[in-house]
Amino acid sequence: YPYYKDSQYTPIEVDDEKFLLKPMNCPHHIEIYKSQPHSYRDLPLRLAEFGAVYRYEQSGELNGLTRVRGFTVDDSHLFVTPEQLEDEFIAVVDLIQYVFETMGFHDFRARLGVNDPDSDKYAGTPEMWEQGINAIRQAADKAGLNYVIEEGEAAFYGPKLDFIFRDVLKREWQLGTVQVDFLLPERFDLEYTAEDGQKHRPIMIHRAPFGSMERFVGILIEHFNGAFPLWLAPVQAAVIPIADRHNAYAYEVADKLKQAGMRVEVDAGSDRMNKKIRNAQLQKIPYMLVVGDREVADGTVAVRTRANEDRGDVALSVFIEQATALVESKSMAL
């Protein structure tokens, strides 16, 4: 905690006890590890949570969702043996790249943050830092990852591999991170019984594929300008009846879409059809399904996209099949 003294909240005293809003989740996962003895057979031990943390950022640094004082980290800590370190690290790198690719984040780079030997903000011995840096380099090289080394970008307890995403405005954001830590297992006296019957120190891997969930969502909104791919869109389709007599069929269409797992709304308001379509487009809803006399008679929907592409009448069963396939594959297309 002393390493967060400039950004952590002051303690709160209640009934002669001091409470502190946690700036990090690591010590809590360490306490879980320490709550019972471990053998080499128990490792790797992976603990994960969406954990709330609090840091008192300066008011001038706050910025929407991308820089906040209370945020949620998809935090995970892996306790591994030296023999497991490389494979576990590569698996984390693969996971982070999978997350980025799935979200459509293709423009990113990797940065290996190492300590500045002239700075006093880093803990641990030179030997620990050398071990950590070499471990990351070997694993990243084996994974075929291109990265740049930047001095002074490490965590206080060890080197880290950060994934820097460039958004549509060409701004860079640090999102996913993975860190190798020899220091905290030493500081907290972590042990496991090795195959030789002796006590050994585990190595910790700190992992956060998304980083701050609030920041990730904020960047996601800006990157897509609110026009999310179908599988991410809060509302995936708006059913628009042309007149009141088409409302019953519109709700029937919506029910079938919901049964297929889609998120759908019906606009049965009094606005004219073109106004309803425009409203849905302004909300960036991927599909507008217009229903009138012909669609009721034929069991179809007239499909429009938020880009104002008119795809004409499509059998409802065909639309559901096509849309659910796009959702299941997490496609960026409509």
Task: Please sum up the structure shown.
With 334 residues, the chain is of the alpha+beta class. The protein has helices at 26-34, 85-102, 126-142, 183-187, 213-224, 247-259, 273-282, 293-298, 316-328; strands spanning 12-14, 17-19, 45-54, 70-80, 108-114, 147-151, 160-166, 172-181, 192-193, 199-200, 203-208, 237-241, 264-266, 287-291, 300-305, 310-315.
Looking at this protein, list some descriptive labels.
334 residues, alpha+beta, BirA Bifunctional Protein, domain 2, Rossmann fold, 2 domains, seven-stranded mixed β-sheet, 9 helices, 31% helix
Q: What helical percentage do the residues reach? A: 25-40%
Sheet with most strands: strand arrangement: 3-4-11-8-7-5-6
CATH topology grouping of the largest domain: BirA Bifunctional Protein, domain 2
- In the predicted model, the low-confidence regions spanning at least 5 consecutive residues are none
User: Which oligomerization state do the chains in this entry correspond to?
Assistant: single chain
- The tally of strands reads 16
CATH class placement of the largest domain: Alpha Beta
Instruction: For the record, give the distance between the C-alpha atoms at the N and C termini, rounded to a whole number.
Output: 48 Å
What proportion strand? 25-35%
What is the fold's blueprint, element by element?
Blueprint: E1 12-14, E2 17-19, H1 26-34, E3 45-54, E4 70-80, H2 85-102, E5 108-114, H3 126-142, E6 147-151, E7 160-166, E8 172-181, H4 183-187, E9 192-193, E10 199-200, E11 203-208, H5 213-224, E12 237-241, H6 247-259, E13 264-266, H7 273-282, E14 287-291, H8 293-298, E15 300-305, E16 310-315, H9 316-328
Parallel strand pairs: 5-6, 12-13, 12-14
Antiparallel strand pairs: 1-2, 3-4, 4-11, 5-7, 7-8, 8-11, 9-10, 14-15, 15-16
